Amino acid sequence: MALWSTSSSYLPLFLGLLSIILLHPITTSTVAVGIRIGIIRRPSPDLPVFHEAPAFRNGDECGSGDANLIHVAMTLGANYLRGTMAAVVSLIQHSTCPENLFFHFLSAHFAPEILSSINSTFPYLNFNIYRFDSNRVHGKISRSIRQALDQPLNYARIYLADIIPADVGRVIYLDSDLIVVDDISKLWAVDMEDKVVAAPEYCLANFTQYFSDAFWSDPALSRTFAGRNPCYFNTGVMVMDVGKWRTEGYTQKVEEWMAVQKKKRIYHLGSLPPFLLVLAGNIKPVDHRWNQHGLGGDNFQGKCRGLHPGPVSLLHWSGKGKPWLRLDSRKPCTIDYLWAPYDLYRSSSGRLEG
Question: Membrane topology for this entry (predicted)?
Answer without folding.
Answer: Single-pass type II membrane protein
